[in-house]
Amino acid sequence: MLTGPTGAIIKKSLFEEVGGFSGKRFVGDNEMWLILAARQPVVKFQPSLFWWRKHELQEYRQGQSAQGYYTMNYLTMKSILENGNCPLNEADSRQAIGLLNARQSRLILHLMIKKGRIKEALEILKICSFSAFDLIRNAFCNTRSITS
After folding, report:
1. Helix, strand or coil for residue 93?
2. With the C-alpha atoms ordered 91, 14, 4, 125, is the resulting torsion angle positive or negative?
3. 46 vs 141, which has greater pLDDT?
4. At what angle do helices 28-39 and 69-82 cross, to 10 degrees?
5. Strands (E), 39-142
6. CA-CA-CA-CA torsion sign (17, 3, 22, 104)
7. 146 occurs within a structural domain
8. Most distant CA pair in the chain: distance in Å?
9. Residue 107 is part of which domain span?
10. pLDDT tops 60 at residue 144
11. Domains held by the chain: number
């Protein structure tokens, strides 16, 4: 799930009820959408059209690192999927975590092999608590049959 304020309409009372943004750098907005979606029905709108001014000091640019989006999105989504408030049943939650692990593992391999950013990829591997075996299994397993 990747969306932002240009594609979201929420009730102020619900935003305040959940305590607002957590303050987590790089992923606070994404985390908020997941928390809100666990509490209320969601309607998917067409993507919005907007102009995005890019500059070197943007939080987005600073987030393109091992400590940024690459790990924070993964850790935030996994935490929410493992949370008791997640509206998914246990089987669906396990499958979603399996898909998340597969995506993260493929990202790590992409950074290592295609981008040559081995040091950064190994840092992400460590932060995500993946072993080398986990990395390969997650990246290449059939995620539809994940049971653990």
Report:
1. helix
2. negative
3. 141
4. 20
5. none
6. positive
7. no
8. 46
9. 9-40+56-140
10. no
11. 1
The SS3 call for residue 95 is helix
Q: Give start and end residues of each alpha helix (H) in 19-58.
A: 28-39
From CA 70, how far away is CA 63, in angstroms rounded? 8
Element (H, E) at 73: helix 69-82
pLDDT of residue 99: 92
Q: 81 with 96: CB under 8 angstroms? A: yes
Query: Which residue in the block uniquely carries the two structure tokens 């990747």?
Result: 2
pLDDT of residue 65: 67
Residue 139 has pLDDT above 50, yes or no: yes
Identify whether the C-beta of residue 98 lies closer than 8 Å to the C-beta of residue 52. no
When the pLDDT of each residue in the chain is averaged and rounded to a whole number, the result is 81
| 148, part of any domain | no
User: Is residue 28 a part of any domain in this protein?
Assistant: yes
80, part of any domain: yes
